[in-house]
Task: inverse folding
């Protein structure tokens, strides 16, 4: 049975939702699922913008059969070749063997690398600034290298103001019958999924995202974009400035909010107890926008997401094998891999006979760009005791002064 939604005149969402996959890219938990978006334009020519993951290919085919009827599929535009969008290309070619494929040179290279038999098709290679007409609709192509693969592009329909934005402006979470961001209370229900998607999937490539936003502004004009149609998550048709502002913050690594993440690594609960005391002391000093995380029980994708949100980070870790507790070390490596910067960090080390975690965490933070490390540090020896109160008060004072200034 088909399941389609109308985006605007002659343009339809023909994607599908996936509730069965537990890990996106086999790493990121998606407890509320994910959507794979594809779009069909019914003009003088029929045009499919991208395909879907193999797991939901059948739904795509039913949607296309319903809308196309006896009409052929004339064109397939591939904005992004990653398998969660490109996996169904060959099925499209089997069903509509005369379809012409429009994409970039690197995308065609990747199709061949993935073993897709595309060289029997008419391949139309496009580059930035090229235009193409499908009848009453004319599109222009904008290169989007490393957002977040090297072959990526976005396509702007100059007729209806639709930007097919590939993985930009995407989000985790399935749509579940809805399509547009304004059909949700996005700021309450969706923003965390959108942030976690961006920060973990695209987050490393902030400069490239900024470049794409600037190019879109100069080539098509942001005021001319009426719809944002990403490959995951809801379509934007209202208040586009809201999500563009969020992307600007994330892409430039500017915190969204003044607030404190306290991330602790504790073997037997003593470092955890110290982190709880610190959180209470911060609240008493008026710093109430705080979040406390156990690094061992919180998937790193959630930690990275909130780290893009908050301005301040406290790292509290026990020493393990004379090093940093492994889950905390993994968190630090993800921060480095995703180019995290522009945060203020406080350090709390702990251990019993050779507490080295504080110094080692400081070294890792110092290797990142544009990070501020507070001078006040402390080391918990086995457990927090009454004679440590002046130290933890000094640490709380320093964090509060930095947050509240």
Result:
């Amino acid at each position: 049975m088909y399941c389609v939604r109308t985006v605007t005149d002659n343009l339809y969402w023909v994607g599908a939702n996936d509730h069965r996959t537990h890990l996106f890219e086999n790493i990121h938990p998606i407890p509320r699922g994910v959507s794979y978006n594809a779009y069909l334009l019914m003009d003088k020519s029929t045009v499919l913008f991208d395909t879907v993951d193999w797991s939901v290919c059948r739904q795509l085919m039913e949607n296309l059969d319903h809308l196309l009827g006896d009409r052929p599929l004339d064109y397939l535009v591939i904005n992004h070749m990653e398998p969660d969008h490109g996996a169904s290309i060959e099925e499209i070619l089997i069903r509509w063997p005369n379809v012409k494929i429009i994409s970039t040179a690197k995308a065609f290279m990747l199709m061949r690398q993935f073993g897709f038999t595309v060289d029997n098709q008419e391949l139309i290679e496009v580059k930035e600034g090229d235009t193409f007409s499908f009848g009453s609709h004319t599109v222009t192509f904008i290169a989007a290298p490393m957002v977040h693969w090297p072959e990526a592009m976005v396509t702007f329909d100059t007729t209806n103001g639709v930007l097919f934005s590939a993985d930009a402006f995407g989000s985790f979470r399935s749509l579940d019958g809805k399509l547009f961001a304004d059909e949700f209370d996005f700021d309450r229900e969706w923003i965390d999924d959108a942030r976690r998607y961006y920060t973990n999937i695209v987050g490393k490539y902030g400069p490239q995202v900024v470049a794409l936003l600037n190019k879109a502004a100069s080539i098509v004009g942001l005021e001319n974009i009426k719809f944002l149609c990403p490959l995951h998550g809801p379509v934007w048709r209202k208040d586009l400035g809201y999500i563009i502002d969020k992307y600007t913050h994330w892409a430039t690594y500017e915190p969204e909010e003044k607030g404190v993440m306290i991330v602790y690594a504790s073997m037997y609960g003593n470092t955890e107890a110290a982190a709880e005391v610190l959180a209470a002391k911060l609240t008493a000093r008026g710093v109430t926008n705080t979040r406390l995380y156990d690094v061992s029980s919180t998937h790193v994708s959630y930690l990275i997401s909130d780290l893009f949100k908050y301005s301040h980070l406290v790292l509290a870790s026990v020493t393990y094998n004379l090093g940093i507790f492994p889950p905390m070390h993994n968190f630090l490596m993800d921060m480095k891999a995703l180019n995290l910067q522009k945060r203020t960090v406080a350090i709390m080390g702990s251990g019993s006979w050779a507490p080295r975690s504080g110094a080692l965490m400081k070294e890792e933070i110092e290797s990142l760009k544009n990070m501020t490390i507070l001078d006040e540090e402390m080391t918990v020896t086995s457990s927090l005791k009454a004679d440590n109160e002046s130290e933890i008060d000094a640490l709380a004072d320093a964090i509060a002064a930095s947050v509240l200034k």
